[in-house]
Every structure is written in C-alpha cells, then in structure tokens.
Design goal:
mainly alpha, 18 helices, about 75% helix, disordered C terminus
Length: about 475
C-alpha cells in the first residue's frame, strides 16, 4: 500500500504552499517600479501634489514624493541584485548542508524583515536617513528573496523530478508572477488613496504570508521525506558536499548560467524602468496605464507559464527552446529602441518569450547537476544572474542621468538603454547556441525527446542524491 507522500495529491499540496512562499516577495520586489514617480518625486510641491489625471505628460507639473534621483532609484534594484549575488552562493551551500526546512524558515523571515525596514525608511522623508534605511531594507530583502527562490526550486525539483517537473516550475512561477501582476494592477491605486507609507507596509503583510507558507511547507516536506525513507539518505549525502565542488561543475551548467544571466539582464532592468519609459516616449499614457502596460510582461507569464511547462514536459527540447526564446526577444528591444509601435505590443511579446525562457532554462539545471548539490548549483546560478542584473541596473541608472530635475528623460537616453538591453539579448543567443553544441557532444540530455512522458527519470531513486561532482559523466548519469 502506497504511503501518502507517494500520491500525487501530497506532492501537489507541497507545491501549493511552495508556490505561496514567494507570492508576497514578488509583489514587493517591483513596488518601486510602480511607484517610480513617487520615489523620485519632489519633496514638496508649490501648489500641492499634481497628478497626471488627463493622461498627458505635459499636464504633470509636480509629483510630491521622496526626492530620489534616477541613479538612487536604480540603486534600489542594484543593491537587491548584489545582495542576491553575495548571499545566494553561501545560501545554496548551506541549504545543501542543512536542508530545505532551515532555508525556508531563515530566508522567508529575511524577506519580512527587509520589507519592514524598507517601509520604515519611507518615514524618513526629507532626512539623510531615508536612502540608507531603504537601501538596508532592500539589501535584507534581496538576501532573503533570492535565497528563498533557491529553496523553492530545490523542493520543486525533489518532489517533481521524473514527473511533472516543468509544469511544477511553471506553476511556481505563475504564483510568483501573480504577486507581480497584482502589484502592477493595484499598487498605484492603493498609493493614491492611502499614501506611499501604508502601501509599503501592505507589501510587508504579504511577505508575512510567505513566512506562514514556509512553516507549512516545512512540515509537509519533513513528513513526506520520512514516509519515503529518504530523509536519512539525503542528510548523509549532504555531509559529502564541499564548496570546492563548484570547480567541477560541468561546462553545460556554466553555459546555461550565462544564457540565463544575459536573458534576465534585459527583462528585469526593463520592467524596473518601463513605466517611466512609456510615459516619457509615448504620448497619452497616465502613470497607472503605463504600469499596466509594463506589468503585461508578468501578466502573460502568469497565464502561459503552466501551459508552457506542460508543453516542455511533453516534448523536451529545452535547449532549442532556450535558443528560440532568446532569438525571438531581439525584435522586442529593437521595436522599443527604434520605433513608436505601441509599447503593449513589445511587453506582451516579451512576456511570451519570458514564459518560455523561465520554463526551459531554470528547470534544466537539475538535469545537469546531482540532487545533493542542487542548492549550491542554484545558488551560484542565481548569484551570477544577480551580478549581471545589478550591473545592468547601475548602467541603466548611469545612462538615464543622476538628476531628478528632469520630469521627462530625453528620448536619446532611453534609446541607449534599449540598445544596451538588445546587446544583452544578442549575448544570450550566442550563449544558448553554445549550450546546445556542448550538450549535443555530451549526450543531448537537454534536447532529449520523449513524447507523452517526462524527459527526466520516471522514478525517484534514493541514489540520485549520491553522486557528487565527480566529472561530466557522473553528473550526467545521476540525472538523465
């Protein structure tokens, strides 16, 4: 008689709470993107606060806000990325050593603390403490959220490997992006009614939901592992993991990391500044309408991620999908840089390619590294990605300028930003093609086709945790 943990209902219960881990933190992550005008707004307005009610930029005389410069605003995203880059390597290693339950508790708590400090910083308007306190909050938040995603992916990979892996990753992304979508739809309205301070504290409450979910998924993971008789096995194998094993990660892994990094270098910095970009370049868009259009990237991802996951589980070909979505992203930034095609076309297009990228790239990591070191591998991948995104945010901030006196940033500056993102996408195409060439030489694991069944192993083998990073063959044999 099968134990409860072997049933599909149990692993999908784990998936439900696992999805909720990052719902609130994804909502909080892009709150600055929606409230960019308020964050960069003037500390005082001579005739009060004037909002863009008619939808034309020319009517926006003054927005009262926290007085940040464009460079300081982009630093909010850069420091988040740097915190990720530094912390996630150690976090991934600690998760491999100490387990998933340790990770979800500590890192979900950090997201709550970080969002609380960030909200607290808004109370220091007009003082020299505002920026340091808010940056400290983003640093703590980034330390927790990036690492929390690693634990989330590790739990998903364990419970769904050999089954509905890409679907599970897709659903996880959908729940996370639901937080992002709700942020783009409701945050600006909430701020208009209650003010920026209460808005930021509302985000903190949603992060608290993630902490409650962390407790639930910890219990389910612990009980399930014991029922499957794998808890002791994985704990024993975790003791064999050493940080030096990073040196022996396979070439396919590093090319996959570069592919992910260059792709996200275009997506995240664009979404962070998209609302302001749309208002500056295209006439007739209010702040709320621009936020809706920028949020279309995540709206599309929310709708498509699960379906794309099912498709990739069915047909495989992850490497080819990675090349395809990178190549098809090139026209997005070309349109934004050189034409006046309505921006909704580009954001919907980017949302589609982003959905395929997320469902094909990240779930490929468990296929090229063993389970026992998956946390370390995920942590390193996230670190490299966040270093790239952080540098991209800094470069974008530098291109846009450092003064807040310009209500409308010159279009030539925005064009340079889009060309920079286009260059990152070209690099992504090159990296993804190289990944496919190397993968073909090493057995074609990523592009294996097995219609009607998952590409991964059908059964979870306790020995899957055993092989460490001996060499290319050992790594390949443990997964595929």
């Amino acid at each position: 008689m099968a134990v409860a943990a072997e049933r599909a209902s149990y692993r999908f219960a784990v998936l439900l709470f696992n999805c909720l881990l990052t719902f609130g933190s994804y909502f909080c992550f892009d709150i600055p993107g929606v409230l960019q005008e308020q964050l960069q707004g003037n500390l005082t307005c001579p005739n009060g606060t004037h909002h863009n009610k008619t939808g034309h930029n020319s009517t926006l005389d003054c927005v009262e806000g926290l007085g940040m410069t464009p460079a300081q605003y982009n630093l909010l995203y850069a420091i988040y990325a740097w915190a990720n880059a530094v912390v996630v390597i150690l976090a991934g290693f600690l998760i491999d050593k100490l387990g998933n339950r340790f990770g979800v508790f500590v890192f979900s708590l950090l997201t709550v603390l970080g969002s609380s400090v960030f909200a607290l910083g808004s109370h220091f308007k007009g003082s020299p403490y505002l920026l340091p306190v808010m940056l400290t909050g983003r640093l703590l938040f980034g330390s927790g959220n990036g690492s929390l995603t690693i634990v989330q992916n590790r739990i998903t990979a364990f419970w769904f490997k050999g089954k509905e892996l890409a679907l599970a990753f897709g659903l996880t992304l959908s729940f996370s992006r639901l937080g992002s979508v709700l942020n783009f739809f409701f945050t600006q309205q909430f701020e208009a009614k209650f003010g920026i301070q209460w808005t930021l504290w509302g985000g903190t409450l949603l992060c608290l939901l993630g902490f409650v979910s962390a407790l639930a998924v910890s219990v389910l993971d612990k009980v399930g592992m014991k029922q499957l008789g794998l808890d002791g096995v994985i704990q024993q194998e975790s003791k064999k993991v050493h940080i030096q094993d990073i040196r022996r990660l396979p070439l396919r892994y590093w090319l996959l990391v570069l592919t992910i990094t260059f792709f996200y270098n275009g997506v995240f910095p664009f979404v962070a500044d998209a609302s302001k970009f749309i208002q500056d370049k295209y006439s007739g868009y209010s702040q709320q309408a621009a936020a809706y259009i920028a949020g279309a990237v995540y709206n599309i991802s929310l709708v498509l991620s699960a379906a794309v996951g099912i498709l990739i589980d069915y047909v495989g070909l992850r490497g080819f999908f990675a090349v395809g979505c990178a190549a098809l992203t090139l026209p997005v930034f070309a349109l934004l840089a050189f034409t006046f095609v309505p921006p909704l076309v580009s954001t919907i297009w980017l949302g589609i390619t982003y959905s395929f990228a997320a469902a094909s790239m990240w779930p490929s990591i468990p296929l090229v590294v063993p389970q026992a070191t998956l946390g370390t591998a995920m942590g390193l991948a996230t670190s490299v990605q966040m270093i790239g995104v952080g540098l991209s945010n800094l470069i974008v901030g530098h291109i846009l300028g450092t003064t807040s006196s310009e209500l409308k940033i010159p279009l030539w500056r925005w064009q340079q930003v889009m060309i920079f993102m286009l260059a990152n996408t070209v690099a992504c195409v090159v990296a993804s093609i190289s990944l496919n060439v190397v993968d073909k030489k090493q057995g074609g694991t990523l592009n294996r086709v097995r219609k009607g069944a998952p590409v991964e192993q059908e059964d979870r083998d306790p020995a899957d945790a055993a092989p460490l990073l001996d060499d290319e063959t050992g790594s390949k044999g443990s997964i595929s």
